[in-house]
Amino acid sequence: MLRVSLRLILCASLAMVLLGCATAPELKNAGPDFESAREAYVAGDYQRALPLMTAEAERGTPRAQYALGYMYFNGLGVDSDRDQAVAWIRRAANNGDPLAVEALSRMAVTMTRQTPATRQPAPADEAR
User: Fold this and answer.
1) Tens of pLDDT along 13-29?
2) DSSP class of residue 114?
3) What pTM did the predictor assign?
4) Which helix (H) or strand (E) holds 117?
5) Backbone angles phi and psi of 61, in degrees to 5
6) CA distances from residue 95 to 23, 45, 113 in whole angstroms, order as listed
7) What are the C-alpha distances in Å from 17 to residues 49, 66, 87, 88, 104?
């Protein structure tokens, strides 16, 4: 049964990725802060990139929403916040960003693999 569930998840993930590629957002619709945000991000200047990327994400630029989610997920220029990360990445995916669709698919597969029976105990769990 687990094998069938995993196969269904992988097929659904592939379909979402293909759908995302077919509806990829145009970056030419990005606002004025996106290029500056991208340059700061690529240079590793996350403190400068964060407010610019946030402004673009709130404006509705899908790639900025994905990048902001990635920043929250990995704690780049901001404290790591998985809930914020998933929320921004989900918004980007809903707006057609193929990288966000793929990221959500990978997260779904990773989370299914870490069931309570298979997850590694946290240090606090070992002390009990």
Assistant:
1) 544 544 444 344 456 56
2) -
3) 0.67
4) none
5) -75, 115
6) 9, 26, 27
7) 27, 14, 18, 17, 9
3-state SS record for 14-58: HHHHHHHHHCCCCHHHCCHHHHHHHHHHHCCCHHHHHHHHHHHHH
Residue 11: is its pLDDT beyond 50? Answer: no
Residues in the chain: 128
DSSP code per residue over 49-108: HHHHHHHHHHHT-HHHHHHHHHHHHHTSSS---HHHHHHHHHHHHHTT-HHHHHHHHHHH
Question: Taking the CB of residue 28, how many other CB atoms lie within 10 A of it?
Answer: 5
Q: Give me the pLDDT at residue 23, please.
A: 41
Count the neighbouring beta carbons within 10 Å of the beta carbon of residue 27. Answer: 13
For 40-94, write each residue's pLDDT tens digit: 999 999 999 999 999 999 999 999 999 999 999 999 999 999 999 999 999 999 9
